[in-house]
Design a protein that fits this description.
The chain is of the alpha/beta class. It is built from 27 helices and 23 strands. The N and C termini lie far apart (86 Å).
């Protein structure tokens, strides 16, 4: 190979230097660096320029500057997007963001240029032709080719990984200097790889998939720059030196003004989200590699997940579409996919030690075999299960799985009768929550006051361990679904409907601005429901005696030892709050008559049973907040009713009146006072209510047996129960007491059925907190004497 410039990957460079024995004048360049030399590049600070001047999202700005150096390759500018890019490039050049020396190509004039395994894309060919105008260019291809005869298929990822580790253990025994690489993996494999590494006593270097955006230092920094806190104050509060150095490197790289960091908020946010936590690095460990890397004879490559998405195709959905790319003289997405496939096949054939595997989960459509099987002419070897005798840990886990199969499904594996299972320790683990030490508690007590809503209380009493994972460790994640977004859309319109200048069409248009096209379609189905509900409510509200309305109001109070406390004690106790969708009320000089409404777009069941056990607390919580809030201070609060009102798109029977069918679903579901005089303020026609579900009197004048009612004693009891439950929760938080105790009532546990952590708490039968059903009617008859 002639002396001069060598254009190759870093792996090829290392291999050349390792094998070179004499003194050679080689100047190595990666293809990426060569592009910058021949076509120019843009300063990183150009990202901020595009973002601030053109309001361009950071992701889009990054893609734009990727194409800008090559904009002159277009012979004409027929397409508007290319004309826009030309203007952007001129603007960046005029502002000093472009790094380009047109005489740079002359640096190659005195040297030979050699490309090692060059890509066949149009841009690489253009660079080769450009260099040939000034010097000699050689193209060297690695002609090594190995005929890989088979791939192995396994039932799942676990068994696929098991046999890879079993094989590499054998490789390392025979060749202790072998380099092991896992390629085409994803985070689904990582937990399995960690376990197998322990089982087979090898090390593995895995990438972290956790972004630093959740780090407290990062959150405080982002908040600080948005609030324009001085940079010196911000950087001095950061405890983690790596994060501090990363922030400083961003400022230096993007040439940011430390007095105007708020202008770079979006950039910081983007970079933090894409920066992963640092994972530990071990020597002589398995490494994650790329299928496009050039591997040597001492490298052993395990290609996982050989499915139909491999190689992953590029889609015509980038900033430039295929017609833009073609006019620019670059490869479109169709050509790029063909080139990528050819390059991948070429590279796979050059890997001497290659093992290919595939998990054939037949129920998953994404696990259809890759079509590269035909190109490589591979034969399948199917393996059905893990073998025994290679790893004691894996053997124990296999026997545990067999025992699970036997106990749960009655499937008896013959191997269970052939081996001594004492070491399996099946169902002998200790799953109990271990309390923290007093020292830890003192150092980590939560700051006061503890702020919580009824949902916190609900989670704790469904299971303290659920509360610990959800609210203390902050493992809860909220992913808005279409249903929640459509529900929010309906809620917003209902809230605005009581404003003096309300316009339904304007409210609908504003609400749909934040929705996708698909969501807007389903929101339109909700429009008719909301319009009918507004008419239903207005009709009844004209007849009631409650003349005032509050919507989406936050009520809050301070709670200590079951009692309301004065504002001077604000920093000591629980700040209990809640947003009530709507209250209708009437004030007199010393009293206020109130009805509580909560809109529901789901299928909630209305019940006040087992309130004393922390169940069904939403309406009692609202009752408590109303009675203690400053809004009605020094007045007796008389609650006429507590209700849910459904706002759902429901199936309509085409044979009956559509509006009447909807009105049946709009009727209030909940509990009403049994005081007839007060009740008539809410519904003058309560004797046969068309406003409140199940509210009716019989011919004798008595309330129907199925009417949901409460008396003054029940209200008095509820107003004592809620703060007692809060106080018990506060003590649990202070003492870090969160045992696995899912609530089970009459043998049924909704706590576990809907718990997102159901598979990690390892509960056993003895862990359940069993309670009998306690009907709400008991609170109407008996005095409350405190929690058990």
């Amino acid at each position: 190979m002639q002396e001069g410039y060598i254009i190759c990957s870093n792996e090829a460079k290392e291999r050349i230097l390792k094998n070179e024995t004499g003194l050679r004048n080689y100047k190595f360049l990666t293809p990426s660096l060569l592009k910058d030399m021949l076509y120019g590049s843009f300063k990183p600070s150009s990202i901020i320029f595009l973002h601030n001047k053109y309001h361009m999202p950071i992701e889009k700005a990054l893609e734009v500057i990727k194409y800008l150096p090559f904009i002159e390759l277009a012979k004409e500018y027929k397409r508007a997007k290319l004309r826009d890019l030309k203007i952007l490039k001129e603007d960046l050049i005029n502002n000093g963001y472009f790094i380009y020396n047109p005489n740079q190509i002359l640096a190659f004039k005195r040297y030979n240029v050699t490309f090692i395994n060059p890509l066949k894309d149009k841009l690489t060919l253009a660079m080769i032709n450009k260099l040939r105008e000034v010097t000699n260019v050689d193209l060297l291809e690695n002609t090594d080719s190995y005929n890989h005869l088979e791939f192995k298929s396994y039932p799942n990822l676990e068994i696929e990984a098991y046999y890879a580790f079993k094989d590499l253990k054998k490789v390392l025994k025979e060749n202790k200097d072998a380099n092991i690489y896992f390629v085409n993996t994803n985070s689904s494999y990582y937990p399995i790889f960690k376990r197998m590494a322990l089982s087979f006593k090898v090390s593995i270097n895995l990438k972290s998939d956790l972004s630093i955006i959740s780090n407290l230092d990062i959150k405080n920094f982002l908040k600080g720059i948005r609030e324009e806190v001085p940079f010196t104050d911000l950087i001095n509060t950061i405890k983690d030196n790596e994060i501090k150095n990363f922030i400083i490197s961003i400022i230096n790289k993007y040439e940011l003004d430390i007095n105007k960091l708020s202008d770079a908020y979006s950039l910081f946010n983007y970079l933090f989200r894409n920066k992963k936590h640092k994972a530990p690095i071990y020597d002589k460990a398995i490494n994650l590699g790329s299928v496009y890397t050039e591997y040597g004879d001492n490298d052993y490559v395990y290609l996982f997940n050989f499915n139909s998405d491999f190689p992953k195709p590029l889609k015509d959905e980038g900033f430039l579409n295929r017609l833009d790319l073609l006019e620019l003289g670059l490869d479109d997405y169709i050509s790029q996919n063909k080139l990528n496939k050819a390059a991948l096949l070429n590279n796979l054939r050059k890997i001497k030690n290659l093992s290919i595997s595939f998990p054939y989960r037949l129920s998953s459509l994404d696990n259809i075999l890759s079509d590269l099987r035909e190109d490589l002419n591979l034969k399948e070897t199917k393996i059905l299960a893990k073998d025994l005798g290679t790893s004691e840990i894996e053997d124990i886990l296999s026997f545990g799985a067999m025992l699970d199969d036997y106990n749960l499904y009655g499937r008896n594996n013959p191997l269970l009768g052939k081996y001594n299972l004492d070491k399996v320790n099946y169902l002998k683990y200790d799953n109990m929550f271990k309390p923290f030490s007093k020292e830890f508690i003192l150092n980590h007590k939560p700051s006061l006051p503890i702020k919580m809503s009824y949902s916190n209380v609900k989670v704790y009493y469904s299971c303290p361990f659920h509360y610990y994972l959800d609210r203390i460790l902050k493992l809860a994640t909220f992913e808005g679904t279409m249903a929640t977004r459509i529900g929010s859309y309906a809620h917003a319109i209902l809230e605005k409907s009581y404003q003096p200048d309300f316009d339904l069409e304007v409210a609908k248009a504003e609400g749909k601005k934040e929705l996708s096209k698909k969501e807007q379609f389903f929101a339109s189905l909700m429009d008719e429901v909301v319009a009918d509900l507004l008419e239903f409510n207005k009709t009844h509200e004209r007849e009631m005696g409650l003349d005032k309305t509050l919507c989406e109001h936050e009520f809050s109070t301070q709670v200590s030892e079951g009692n309301i406390v004065e504002a001077t004690d604000f920093d000591q106790d629980i700040n209990f709050y809640g947003f009530i969708d709507k209250i209708k009320y009437k004030e007199t000089s010393d009293k206020v008559y109130v009805a509580i409404y909560d809109y529901k777009t789901g299928g909630d069941i209305v019940s006040l049973d087992n309130v004393i056990d922390g169940e069904n607390l939403q309406l009692p919580s609202y009752l408590f907040l109303l009675n203690k809030d400053e809004l009605f201070k020094n007045k007796e609060v008389i609650v006429l009713g507590m209700y849910l009102q459904k706002v759902n798109v429901t199936l309509i029977d085409g044979l009956r009146d559509k509006k009447l069918q909807r009105e049946l679903t709009f009727r209030l579901k909940g509990y009403s006072t049994n005081n007839r005089e007060n009740l008539s303020l809410l519904d003058p026609y309560y004797q046969d209510s068309t406003y409140i579900q199940s509210l009716k009197t019989t011919n004798s004048g008595e309330f129907a047996s199925y009417a949901k009612l409460y008396n003054e004693k029940a209200i008095t009891n509820l107003l004592k129960i809620v703060p007692d439950l809060l106080e018990k929760l506060k003590n649990a938080i202070y003492h870090f007491d969160f045992p696995i105790k899912p609530l089970r009532i009459d043998g049924k546990s909704n706590s576990c059925m809907f718990c997102p952590y159901n598979n990690i708490c390892y509960k056993t039968e003895k862990d359940y907190l069993d309670k009998e059903k306690k009907p709400f009617s008991v609170l109407m008859e008996e005095d409350y004497h405190g929690l058990d």
